[in-house]
Amino acid sequence: MRRTPAIALPLLLLTACGAPEAQRTTPPGADSAVVNVYTHRHYDTDKQLFARFTQETGIRVNVISAGDDELLSRLEAEGANTPADLVITADAGRLGLAKQRGFLKPVKSAVLDANVPAHLRDPEGNWYGFTMRARVIAYDKTKVKPEEVRTYDDLTKPRFKGKVLARSSENVYNQSLVAAMIAHDGPEKTTAWCKGVVANFARDPKGSDTDQLLAIGEGLGEVAIANSYYIGKLLTSDDPARQKAKGLIGVSFPDLSGHGTHVNVSGAGVVKYTKNEANAVKLLEFLSSDEAQRLFAEGNMEFPAKPGVPVAAVLQGFGPFTADTLDLSQLGLHNADAVKVLGAAGWR
Ligand SMILES: [Fe+2]
Q1: Is residue 332 very low, low, confident or very high in pLDDT (cuts 50, 70, 90)?
Q2: Using the 8-state DSSP alphabet, how is residue 146 labeled?
Q3: Which CATH class is domain 12-132+263-310?
């Protein structure tokens, strides 16, 4: 997901099919067959799922898309007047922040408790993860041996001087990776890791995760930090511009200090001032259902949260891995420190 500028941009009010909704015809709360969603996710799978939800329940899904920080600012500014019923982000850190700032309300649902494992949701029910992604190392198979990229620490070794590709530290995925490291190893060791990675950069951070993968294809670096689903999408892409990278890239699930690979979730929480709570919970339950979980897995190459739903074949091909079971609310708690550590290390 691209980082959007922190300045307040005009927000788009979209219907589930993506057409701008010229004007709200009923005040928030007056329509019992609606759910208003603030989302940072921009994937086609989500549009399909919202349309399917409407078909099955008759509940219309109004979508407001924006960057995660903008959505949080908007919830803050709107307070009790917010039209939002459900907020969706692609980062547990942001969900944790939304909870800390009092934007969410705890909900109880036997369906959600059954479908979403405990480590992928807030213990008090303020938010629920519905997909998981791993932050992995992609490497050039022709230049790097798998045993050279077993841990995140490997990225700091002299072996990879001038070879490491990564996006900017403004990106929340990197912030949450570093927040997880701080949670496990403390700020000092984490600062040293960030400095080591910066010292090995192939170029100044720029672009998306996918841009780092394409840069491997261009020979601009040998290893890149990226989310697993971007690699799944690249490896199943017919786009001629992606074929060079597609032929070169291998995947390592690096270990973080004996805890396994850093994972994050996309998830959602019901907004404290919701006027359509039952509909919001219904949509949340739908997103955790087999039907939705299968589409997240096949359509967006994410790991389904619900146990037993098959992982996409291309991801299975990466092999098994151990996911760090760190309580993901820690990502929000350590976000500010992560931003400081990244800044202190000179990771732009
Ligand atoms: Fe993304």
Answers
A1: confident
A2: G
A3: alpha beta
CA of 206 to the centre of ligand 1 (A): 15
Confidence (pTM): 0.86
Amino acid in the structure at residue 333: L
C-alpha 46 – ligand 1 centre gap (Å): 13
Distance 33 CA to ligand 1 centre (A): 30
Residues facing 304 on adjacent strands: 131
Sign of torsion over alpha carbons 158, 160, 163, 168:
negative
List the one residue out of 1, 21, 24 whose CA is nearest residue 71. 1
Residues 35, 62: contact at Cβ < 8 Å?
yes
> How many Å lie between the centroid of ligand 1 and the Cα of residue 29?
31
Q: C-alpha dihedral over 71, 100, 263, 156, to 10 degrees?
A: 100
For the chain, the domains span: 12-132+263-310, 133-262+320-344
Report percent pLDDT > 70 for the chain. Answer: 91
- In angstroms, the CA 244 to CA 29 distance is 51
Question: For residue 22, what pLDDT is reported?
Answer: 34
Domain 133-262+320-344 has CATH 3.40.190.10: yes
Alpha-carbon distance of 347 to 339, in angstroms, equals 10
Residue 263, SS3?
A: strand
Ligand 1 center to 218 CA (angstroms): 22
Distance 5 CA to ligand 1 centre (A): 16
CA quadruple 171, 173, 179, 182: dihedral positive or negative? negative
Looking at residue 322, its pLDDT comes to 95
12-132+263-310 against 133-262+320-344: fold identical: yes
pLDDT digits (tens, 9 = 90+) for 53-108: 999 999 999 999 998 889 999 999 999 999 999 999 999 989 988 999 999 999 99
Give 90 Cα–ligand 1 centroid separation in angstroms.
7
Gap from CA of 210 to ligand 1 centroid (Å): 9
Tell me how crowded residue 75 is: count the other CB atoms within 10 A of its CB: 21
Interval between CA 1 and ligand 1 midpoint (Å): 3
